[in-house]
Specification:
Blueprint: H1 7-32, H2 51-92
Keywords: Membrane, Transmembrane, Transmembrane helix
Amino acid sequence: MTSRLTTTQTALVIRRAALALLTLATLVMLTGCGPDINNGQMVDAGGENGQGGLAFVLLAVFIGLLFASLFYMDRIRKKREERQDADHEGDAK
């Protein structure tokens, strides 16, 4: 037997996952703000100890997350428009 989540349950799961991710990101940022940090700069791209590579990876991850979120938001918008169009067509009949 397969269980399918309703739209409300799916939205709740997504909200909880987003809140958990936000909490995790906040904790990582706060723990990274130690006494050896320079003016709020967590990663020195020009610094010693190979931090230039870390800065590049963090930038690539950030840009990837940006594009993924834009794609996801556009997908939601298109689904909403399709649903509204279907509702309007059903009303016209």
